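Morning. Coffee machine broken again, so started the prediction first thing and wrote up yesterday's gels while waiting. Chain of 496 residues, entered below exactly as on the submission form.
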Amino acid sequence: MTPQDFRKEKDSLGEIQVPASALFGVQTQRAVENFPITGLRPWRAFIWSIAAVKRAAALVNFELGLFNDREVDGKHFTAKQLSEAIVQAAAEVMDGKWDNEFVVEPFQAGAGTSHNMNANEVIANRATQILGGELGKYYVHPNDHVNMAQSTNDVIPTSIRLGALWRLDELLNSLKNLQAALEVKAHEFDGVVKSGRTHLQDAVPVRLGQEFGAYAKSVARDAERIRRSAEGLRRLGIGGTAVGSGLNAHPKYHAGMVKKLSELTGLQLIESDNLFESMQSMADAADFSASLRTLALTLIRIANDFRLLSSGPSTGFDEIRLPAVQPGSSIMPGKVNPVMAEMLDQAMFHVVGCDTTVALAAQAGQLQLNVMMPILAHNLFEMMQVVIGSVDAFTERAVKGVTANREKAEGWLAKNAIIVTALNPVIGYAQGAALVKEAVANNASIRELAMERAKAGALKHRDEERPVTPEEIEAALSDLRKLTEGGIVGGVSGGG
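Came back before lunch.
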């Protein structure tokens, strides 16, 4: 690159070269040079949210009369012109026009000063262009104007809250679609009676539809947990400035910012009832992150069930068939794997890891500030992206196309000796256990074996000596679907 490719900018540490065409400035360039760690960039939610704060601040500070006219390079700019230029530039950032100018990666200096200054400089330079100036001339100053009445310490936690809320509906919609797809399958599979399994061993019957209905309900409950925890994010501490005291901010600034941000974003936001707490604590973000972790644990369980239920097909459960979306082996022809469930597992493992980072960052706050906010923000926004992307893919390419293998499911049930449990009210636990032992040893059907013993008069009632009749065995075991509906089967009555 030639010298013409750079411009010189100066900050309190001295002069430094900045790419000539960059909207960012000297402090951003220092951060780029200081933190060449991964090449990662901030998530769109973090860019959008911090720009929303800058846009709202320009409006509120102007309304409070805090902007002054300004003379630069012999040019006169009114307070209104300065404010409007900031508002327009910030709106462009919110719209995604300048995402490539946000170049500071998540592993950066504490608190997020570098991300805040990246936003301040991009908006200041773009506002300067809007006013007819050149990059680096700063007709609009990054600190004095764009960052007016703000500190990194209240801007970054506010941006974290706004960014998470910005994608909340998208996240919940993904979960709603998954829940709906599972409910459709629950209805579709309701007629398939199969063997239940506990401890991965045979258990009493269950309908495949009941399994899928339970998956749907689990997702719904997790969505409600996420919705509930997100309420804490609506409480904003903007206006607390450095430590919560509100130094350098107008007394009406905090309330004005919450109102203005609500208007600009369409989000329901509320004022903090203690700005000092809002500076110190990241507990609301940790709470929201934990709700995503709980969802991840649920989805891992469901994905693993899909893998088990579709295992085989010749040597596994093979009770459901997942869509074949790609070949499963580079060496074994015809092999098809449950790749969407495997993907969901891996995605949710990552979410759990992100939540661990959020938790560690949240507890690392000291005194008036949590300086670990940059990595907390990155992981929180990454969790949301990973959940949305993986859930959408799993819903579309696995759940909606899953089919039931009724023959295999009912075949396994026919071999399940544990259906003897339905005879407990008739013959009692001990005789039932003996029947199971014999059935397993002889690879016999429990129904046929029990009927044979009843005809021979070898089974006695649980609480009396009279023999059990074949009709009583038939009433208890003839319709295995009844065993999935609860209650005492076979019409057994109490009394003596």
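The chain has three domains: 3-148, 163-244+274-407, 415-481. Going to sketch it on the whiteboard this afternoon.
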